[in-house]
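Moderator note: this is an archived Q&A kept for reference. The question asked for a predicted structure of one protein chain; the sequence and the answer are reproduced below.
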Amino acid sequence: MKDFKPLKPEKTIISLRIDVEILKKIDEISAKTDISRNELLVQCIEYAIKNIKE
């Protein structure tokens, strides 16, 4: 059995300009799923990167 080692991934703060209507939809989904706007955006970006057709 491997030893558990907690990791703290490096993160940085960025600025993002986004359409108001998209932000409203993001906030609705965030409220429905009970996760923060930031976490929802991170998950959406990760999904998009993993599934992009290059």
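Archived answer notes: Helices lie at 20-33, 37-51.
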